[in-house]
Specification:
The complex is a heterodimer of chains A (about 260) and B (about 450). By secondary structure, chain A is an alpha/beta fold. Chain A contains eleven helices and eight strands. Chain B is mostly helical. Helices cover about 65% and strands about 0% of the residues of chain B. Classes of the chains: A alpha/beta (about 260), B mainly alpha (about 450).
């Protein structure tokens, strides 16, 4: 099944307005692993007939890594340009699969003139299930499997979203096993604050290794997460222990799309 | 009469010196940049009640929370007895509240005594956690030297204080039993839970002169310890017992993920993006205020950052939850706060001595906090989440980064590349913006 991915420009040309804008983000657009998450979310949106659009080539980096790296100029340039585009299309509601974009658009754009209702994709999917638009029969392929959820810092601590991804995992009829450090005590994957784009400072361990060990302690077959960067870090962590044949790292959107056989 | 004069003199010196130091610290905190934290007072009061008064965040670690609560509760309730000591001390009376309060007085003092015993046990537990069990977060490198001594000194002072209370009450009870109390000439018992046992068991065997001596040593020792403690606070990490309250009141009420907007940059970016803008029409007020981007020294930080630094108890919950520190990097959020306070004390003292424009050639960034520490942060907010009194080390780290990047152009080479990519092609990697939708048609 081919994906239907309308752009804002196309929709506007046809005189239509989407209900929600899907902000894909740089990772979701360019990173091979994250692109799969993007596609899984689009499959869900297509399946549920959600009237959405993407900005496509009009989208640009939200500016999150620039701001966390201390370059407020670059951040605000990016933000102002994005806000011009978003306001030009009169966007009201945005969904994104990247907690970094989510946080920046939701919390840091308003002061620069960008006011939108911003939700994380797990919140949107939760809503689709709760309103009966998406049904998972008997949980699907993940029934009874042990799944642990790694809280992305910019979703959890930064914005207090802990329940939406967990409720989705429970909808899979899977066994959700918490790591010893979870929710507000969750340990970072090591990618935030622009660390994704640089080597770590000298230490005795990589952060993602420490976090992967937390996940292994739960004996889960699947490490679920809700952030493309966490996904990369945890995937690398699993590979580091040569455990990729036994432990999968998947985004919650991928779990749902697979379980619904989309 | 002589003792009343002595008492009033001691009180005046004790309170006077404390006030002098408080004013000094207040002027240091006011060296910080402006930030408005007066909005939403009802939410602020609620935060203060829950987090400072109710110790809500302490209980994420139940054992130290319980121990701390014993000391905290004893400290708060003992203030009632302290009021009596003040009235007695000035008026020359003995246990002036006993007559008026009656049974409630016995209850209150008994309650204080029970809490004091719990506090004493907790204090020994704290001492052993630091010195025998050597808990990792309480024995880290940044605590070597003065911070370690400071922590132990506070605990020892608490032991002495509690001992004084029991010397005072125990000996007074024994005197009362013998009919030699200052309270009344008749023989009887105060009926306080702990001191009635102490008084009746071994103290009663001592002579009346010795008991009077012990009672007075306890009484004077107590009040001297109170004033010593009060005046030690401004020099110690223990200052949190006072500053926890304003510090939580002025908490950041926004979502933790929201990093502050730099308005001075907004004005310039707006100019750059608006071709019709008049470059001479900039808001002179906002540009005049900004001396430099980000923070190089403590005076570039906000007053709330500086209040945070004075409020820090160096408990190290932040550092023990910091992903960078856990994995052996140099960054320690606690050290960020300790460095900020040490540097602020230094800057404040130097300014008072040499005038407001004095520069000592040193700065927080470089002389206290290294670039390596600043760049190790993942901005995960674990330190902010963990702090029992809502201190925010992350906002200091961010402002140090801003200074490095926007003033000095100093940053890890990969980050410079990442920033160039964002500026050139709207993504942190080298991909063309025109390829942004390619994923939709790929298999």
């Amino acid at each position: 099944m081919s994906l239907k991915v309308p752009t804002m420009a196309e929709m506007t040309a046809q005189g239509e307005t989407p209900d929600v804008l899907f902000w894909v983000g740089c990772a979701g657009s360019f990173d091979d692993r994250a692109k799969k998450i993007t596609k899984a979310l689009v499959k869900i949106l297509n399946h549920c007939n959600v009237k959405f659009a993407v900005l496509g080539t009009e989208e640009s980096c939200s500016g999150d890594p620039a701001k966390r790296a201390g370059n407020e100029f670059t951040f605000q340039m990016q933000a102002m340009m994005n806000i011009q585009v978003l306001n030009g299309y009169s966007v009201n509601k945005i969904v994104t699969a990247c907690p970094h974009c989510f946080n920046t658009l939701k919390n840091e754009y308003p002061e620069l003139g960008g006011n939108y209702e911003v939700i994380h994709h797990t919140q949107l999917i939760q809503d689709l299930i709760n309103t009966g638009k998406l049904a998972l029969e008997n949980g699907g392929v993940y029934k009874g499997k042990k799944i642990t959820f790694h809280d992305p810092c910019y979703l959890g601590r930064a914005n207090d979203v802990y329940d939406a991804p967990r409720e989705l995992i429970e909808k899979l009829d899977a066994e959700l096993v918490e790591m010893k450090r979870c929710k507000s005590n969750g340990l970072c994957c090591g990618a935030g604050g622009a660390q994704m784009f640089k080597e770590a400072e000298k230490g005795n361990k990589e952060v993602n290794i420490e976090r992967t060990e937390d996940a292994f302690e739960t004996n889960s077959e699947i490490i679920a997460t809700g952030c493309p960067f966490c996904n990369t870090m945890m995937t690398d962590g699993v590979k580091n222990f040569n455990k990729e044949a036994f432990v999968q790292v998947l985004d919650v959107a991928e779990l749902i799309a697979n379980a619904a056989e989309l | 009469m002589v003792s009343s004069i002595l008492f009033v003199l001691l009180s005046l010196i004790g309170i006077g010196f404390f006030t002098f130091n408080i004013l000094k610290i207040r002027s240091n905190i006011k060296l910080g940049r402006k930030i408005d934290r007066t909005d939403n007072p009802s939410k602020r009061w609620k935060t203060m009640l829950l987090v400072a008064f109710g110790q809500k965040k302490m209980f994420s670690r139940p054992i130290p929370a319980l121990l701390h609560f014993c000391v905290y509760a004893a400290f708060v309730i003992t203030q009632i007895e302290l009021i009596e000591i003040f009235v007695d001390g000035i008026s020359g009376n003995h246990r002036v509240f006993k007559e008026t309060l009656g049974g409630f007085y016995t209850f209150t003092i008994s309650f204080i005594e029970i809490l004091s015993v719990l506090a004493l046990l907790a204090t020994f537990a704290f001492l052993s956690r630091r010195n025998l069990l050597k808990l990792p977060r309480l024995t880290m490198q940044e605590l070597a030297g003065w911070p370690k001594k400071d922590a132990n000194l506070i605990l020892i002072m608490e032991v002495v204080l509690v001992c004084c209370i029991f010397m005072m009450n125990g000996a007074d009870e024994a005197l009362y039993l013998k009919g030699a109390s200052h309270y009344t000439a008749e023989a009887g018992s105060y009926g306080f839970t702990i001191s009635s046992i102490l008084g009746d068991s071994f103290l009663v065997n001592l002579s009346i002169e010795n008991l009077h001596l012990i009672e007075r040593i306890g009484w004077w020792g107590h009040i001297i310890m109170v004033f010593s403690f009060l005046n030690y606070l401004p020099y110690s990490k223990h200052f949190h017992i006072l500053l926890a309250f304003p510090n939580t009141y002025y908490s950041n009420l926004e979502k933790k993920g929201k990093f502050n907007n730099m308005e001075s940059v907004t004005a310039e970016v707006a100019l750059m993006l608006d071709p019709t803008a008049d470059p001479y029409a900039t808001n002179s007020e906002s540009t005049a205020e900004v001396l430099r981007f980000g923070a190089k020294d403590v005076t570039d930080l906000t007053w709330k950052n500086l209040l945070d630094a004075y409020s820090c108890t160096e408990c190290g919950r932040c550092t023990s939850s910091c992903p960078a520190n856990i994995t052996g990097k140099k960054l320690s959020p606690r050290k960020i706060m300790m460095d900020t306070r040490d540097r602020l004390t230094e800057v404040g003292d130097a300014m008072r001595k040499h005038g407001k424009d004095y520069l000592d050639g040193k700065s927080l960034l470089g002389d206290y906090i290294t670039e390596e520490e600043v760049w190790a942060c993942t901005s995960c907010n674990a330190c902010v989440q963990e702090c029992p009194i809502n201190i925010d080390p992350l906002s200091i780290i961010l402002d140090l980064r801003r200074n490095l990047v926007m003033e000095e152009s100093k940053m890890p080479a990969e980050l410079a590349g990442m920033l160039t990519n964002i500026e050139n092609n709207g993504a942190p990697w080298q991909f063309s913006q025109n390829d942004r939708l390619n994923w939709a048609s790929e298999d």
